[in-house]
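Minutes, project huddle
Topic: does the predicted pose make sense with potassium ion bound?
PN asked that the exact inputs be recorded in the minutes so nobody has to dig through chat later. Recorded below.
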Amino acid sequence: MRSKLLFSLDPPKVLVFGFGLIILLGTLLLTLPSATVDGRGLPLLDALFTATSATCVTGLVVVDTGDTFTKFGEMIILSMIQIGGLGFMSFATLLAFILGKRISFKERLIIQESLNNETVEGIVRLVKRIFLFTAVIEIAGGVILSMRFSQNMAAGKAIYYGFFHAISNFNNAGFDIMGGYKGLTAYTSDPIVNITMITLISFGGIGFIVMNELYEYRRTRRLSLHSKIVLSVSGILVFAGALMIFILEYKNPSTLKPMSMTGKMFGALYQAVTPRTAGSNTLNIPDLKQSTLFLIIFLMFIGASPGSTGGGIKTTTFAILLGAVKSQIRGREDVTFFGRRVDYSIISKALTVTLIALFLVGSITMVLTITEPGKDFLMLFFEAVSAFSTVGLSMGLTPELSSYGKILILITMFAGRVGPLTLAFAVARKRKETHYRHPAGKVMIG
Amino acid sequence: MRSKLLFSLDPPKVLVFGFGLIILLGTLLLTLPSATVDGRGLPLLDALFTATSATCVTGLVVVDTGDTFTKFGEMIILSMIQIGGLGFMSFATLLAFILGKRISFKERLIIQESLNNETVEGIVRLVKRIFLFTAVIEIAGGVILSMRFSQNMAAGKAIYYGFFHAISNFNNAGFDIMGGYKGLTAYTSDPIVNITMITLISFGGIGFIVMNELYEYRRTRRLSLHSKIVLSVSGILVFAGALMIFILEYKNPSTLKPMSMTGKMFGALYQAVTPRTAGSNTLNIPDLKQSTLFLIIFLMFIGASPGSTGGGIKTTTFAILLGAVKSQIRGREDVTFFGRRVDYSIISKALTVTLIALFLVGSITMVLTITEPGKDFLMLFFEAVSAFSTVGLSMGLTPELSSYGKILILITMFAGRVGPLTLAFAVARKRKETHYRHPAGKVMIG
Ligand SMILES: [K+]
Ligand SMILES: [K+]
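Predicted holo structure (tokens), as shared on screen:
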């Protein structure tokens, strides 16, 4: 009885089992003959890969979604995206809420700032609001995209395409049904598609807590430290990233060079937004220069913001680390942002998340060099980071992966999705109070 | 008057100007006609590159040392290696000594443990001992290598070769005069060369403080926390690295496969030792598998230990970061090693050094993708880490570098040599005491 209760209350286990179940169910459905255009259903490993990619809102694909699946198959994928994205966002937000209860008054502040409530009623209201936000944003995006697509296709198809891509992008899922692994390359210069997609990705990527604070800003006239960091870091990464991509690709005849100035600007902006961690693309990724690809790897590794539909080590983690370095170099005792001090415990968490992520990404890249012999190192590195941060961009490796490679990447996507939250939960437990402290020792650094 | 005094007392400036002067002098000498076999002297940029590589004890070469230089030229290079290596080791040790004086009783302990003295007399004795250790180890290594080489060449040449390679390896300089960019590949299976070289590299790489403590161990019967961490981490990295290289290269027909079991073991061991950061090699680096090369990049990035002739972020930095992660995951409040607590200030220094190193290596790799178009990404990444950590291993890029690439890599070698120490000095200054502390804020991580 007690163990059952414990199980039902252990959030990381609920997360892992919940996602696992959805993936298994999706896998079975995708193997059905009616799921694929060829009427034979997807082979088991490919179905497992696709279901994992959809549920973990990654977007890496071993078969082209638009070319391979029937509408039924596509709807299965879209359902997994919606359940995975919404489930994860709710879960992450709830977890922050529960952790707030478990730990201390201080830890709870940020949730309370948004909701001022910690009862069951509060939780229900929280989840309701997450669903409401999702519905409103996805419908708005879907309608706009449908209108735009209706200029090129029949109304019914336009609505279907509009909503599929709105849902996929808000959930940072990276799936598209354009066919031929083309992604959104047909719309590189299109202002409506660009602005709509970038808005959907950005809302999905900043996380519910920030969205909620922005929504309530009219009334509260204030933002929490968390929101200020998320918004400023996301903004800096997008604009600095876009500027760098613009410069690096300006003379690349396969990407920006032949485009109009509007196309060049949107192309650079979109490719700077998508690593946060949408995974859709308007430029053909393998055509980008090595320097741009390496920059995108860096942006993908940072990824989105906590409690969002995106992955990566998170914008806040990156900011905390930079803040710690800055304060160290300036000889300051405290790490501060916007006039607020950040405790050592938070810096230690950021360090832990980042080092574990570096270690995992490094190890996965190394195993890929063994399972995928003869493949370009950058391609493998790119794929490992993309899978870990659940981004879904690829230099074209995914469909060519060996069976071992597919299994490795699908495990990486799963670990990249449930891992950081499980880890955040583990490290958020109250630190053991020790009555005895070891004497201090001295170590030289650098 | 006052500014002159300040200048003469600012150790980072002394370091930068001292190394700069030696490099400029060496550059001039290497452009002399009598320095090169072709009687024309080395072109200016190549001379600057070689002088920087020698003085910063790196070992990256744009021309083959043995084939290009006369004995006079080689002696200039060897002199720069000796001055650079000895100068740096003395400087780093003295700096720890001076910093000990400036800061606090606690910070000073480690030096005092070795020397029990902080007067001018103490400094003189310290430097004398560094010179003595260097002389004894280099002479012992030189004699052994000379005897071994005399089996294959005339006595005079064997002595010259023996001492050149002993000095180069103790100083972790990575230069060899075997010709044809071959390195020590003719001695992969030779036990005497392997054991001698590995011993020289290891002594040079653990740093003077640890060497001194080992030397005094007969009397004191104790090691400081610093030495314990240096010795255990170095040991683990070498043996785990050797095991992994052994497994990864076992079936590689270009490296270990055709060798005897002894050759395989020495080959794996040597390539696991040399990233700490000797730079000589007994296997041909471009023949290694991508997985092995990536492992070597990781080992090179960590590099040697503080106050040594080697570079990198240092074994202690790596250990401190791992310790912080371990304590975070286990929910412990303190980070401890061997029953000693490590203060947050040390963790913060380790974090700062590592993040700045990652940023530099990433940026340099990115610039190389622009200045060296069409080159393999792994090759560029390998070269950037090798230069930054002053390792000197290369996948063969160095001689093919463009002029921009050469300039970038020589700046990287210089920054990699004087940078971490300058940084260590900067971050070791007493943190400003603030009477006002900002209120604590909350940020979500991961
Ligand atoms: K994605
Ligand atoms: K070296």
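Observations noted during the meeting:
- Chain A has one domain: 2-428.
- Residues A 57-59, 172-174, 277-279, 390-392 surround potassium ion (ligand 1) (CB under 6 Å).
No decisions taken; revisit at the next huddle.
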